[in-house]
Design goal:
heterodimer, A: 267 residues, alpha+beta, 8-stranded antiparallel sheet, 6 helices, rod-shaped, B: 213 residues, two-stranded antiparallel sheet, hydrolase (chain B)
């Protein structure tokens, strides 16, 4: 009996060893809250989900953006553990009332991934406004894209919770479009070799910080953690105990009655 | 005659003692008392999106990701190794292949990092009581210590213990987004359906990260 049981234990132990969690990263879904920046009136929510195959699924829903306009958006930060966060108005070093992209970068970090609608997603596409999502007539923006693991900078998935999402494009003179009359020409675009781009188009409108995380792939239904094999054990013990007590009582009664009868007969 | 009677009484005494012992064992083996079927906690409210310049929207201490290796629950005398759990082909969570080992669901955050880490263990399996046999006896504040591959032990405190029907499992509350480092310990409970061979309910203990050791 004991021998076959030992034989069984070995493969089970081996299987357990193999099943021990490895260094593979946990799938998880990181929730990002996009907060208004530069009094833009815009806000939103985003979800970054690390998929089984190492790809990154990004989903963004924003409201209150400049309508019918493209909004450059990026993951900012780094995978080297730098402590970036979202800027407040104190980052407006030139005092024009707006935190520009250059003024924000020391706080939220450099462009890590450009969240374009198609094609390249590297830092080089940071100002590729022709491939950036466009807010609808009501200023709502909806963005969904899965970026292949090969196109992600090293350490992206590992540092998802350290990254920030920044959406650009404000409307300083409230005419529902980007124009040079608002804040003048974009110094950022100019330094990148693009002239005539309004500063309104490149100033940040929202900055997103991680607000929570969830299970990456939700299991279906409940969890089958039990086969009921010991649930009746207590009842079995109670039954056996009760029978034994009854038998003891029976013996006592029978013995006493017999001795009683006998002693009476002897008299 | 007297001798015969003495023998009978000795047998009766032995039976009585054995019976009392059996009842005591039965009492000890009785499944832990379970909470009533519960409504899941309200969806965690995320921070209001009104202010700018926040450093964090999350709550409490957060650790970097690291795979769990061992779980200790002093209140239940539990000290067991942890294995990895994926999904079955039907999409349900895998379960450990023996009564003792506790499983960590790998498609979820690691214990101590932001989000809900999920551990599952049997209430009983193949004739043995499981490591989570008395999970429903946990009280608020009870410690759950998870040792991780990076050598850090994440110390959690139980915040609630609920029982849910499996066919109405509150996936949002158990697996959904939370703003802190959380832990969910899952086992079976409730009525055992002999025809399906499964319990109809799940016991879920919720815990939050309190510190490290």
């Amino acid at each position: 009996m004991r021998f076959p049981r030992t034989l069984l234990t070995v493969p089970v132990a081996a299987a357990l060893l193999l099943a021990t969690p490895t260094a593979a990263l946990a799938d998880e879904s990181v929730h990002v809250k996009l907060l208004e920046l530069n009094n833009s009136g815009a806000s939103g929510n985003a979800t970054l989900t690390a998929l089984d195959n190492g790809d990154l699924k990004i989903s963004i829903r924003s409201t209150g953006l400049v309508p019918n306009s493209s909004h450059a958006q990026h993951l900012h930060g780094s995978a080297t553990g730098m402590d970036f966060h979202c800027p407040d108005m104190s980052a407006d070093t030139n005092g024009n009332g707006y935190v520009s992209t250059e003024e924000g970068m020391p706080v939220y970090g450099d462009i890590f991934v450009s969240l374009t609608t198609k094609g390249d997603t590297s830092k080089a596409s940071g100002l590729a406004v022709d491939r950036m999502p466009i807010a609808d007539a009501k200023g709502n923006l909806s963005y969904d894209r899965t970026i292949a693991s090969a196109d992600l900078p090293k350490g992206t998935v590992e540092h998802l919770k350290d990254l920030h999402i920044v959406e650009h494009g404000v409307d300083a003179n409230s005419n529902d479009k980007y124009d040079l009359d608002g804040l003048g020409e974009s110094t950022l675009a100019k330094s990148a070799g693009l002239s005539g781009i309004p500063e309104e188009a490149t100033d940040p409108a929202t900055c997103g910080m991680v607000s929570g995380a969830a299970v990456g792939s939700v299991p279906v239904g409940g969890v089958a953690t039990g086969d009921g094999s010991t649930r009746d054990r207590a009842a079995a013990w109670y039954g056996a105990g009760g029978l034994a007590l009854l038998a003891a009582l029976g013996i006592v009664v029978v013995t006493r009655r017999r001795s009683y009868v006998l002693s009476r007969a002897q008299r | 005659m007297t001798r015969h009677r003495t023998h009978a009484l000795i047998i009766a005494a032995v039976l009585a003692i054995a019976g009392a012992a059996a009842i005591a064992i039965g009492h000890h083996d009785e499944p832990a008392a379970e909470p009533p079927l519960t409504a899941p906690p309200a969806a965690p409210s995320s921070a209001p999106a009104t202010k700018v310049g926040h450093d964090v929207l999350t709550r409490g201490k957060l650790l970097p990701a690291s795979v769990p290796t061992r779980v200790r629950i002093p209140a239940l005398d539990v000290d067991e190794a942890i294995t990895g759990l994926g999904q079955e082909p039907d999409g349900s969570m895998q379960v450990p292949t023996d009564a003792r080992t506790v499983g960590w669901y790998t498609k979820a955050p690691t214990p101590g990092s932001l989000g809900p880490a999920v551990l599952a263990g049997h209430v009983n399996f193949h004739g043995a009581d499981g490591t989570f046999a008395r999970l429903s006896a946990l009280h608020n504040g009870d410690r759950v210590e998870i040792t991780r591959q990076d050598g850090i032990t994440a110390v959690f405190a139980v915040t609630r213990v609920d029982r849910y029907a499996k066919n109405q499992f509150p996936a949002g509350a158990v697996y959904g987004a939370i703003d802190h480092a959380g832990l969910r310990l899952i086992t079976c409970g409730g009525y055992f359906d002999r025809r399906s061979g499964h319990y109809v309910d799940n016991i879920v203990a919720y815990a939050e990260l309190r510190g490290t050791e």
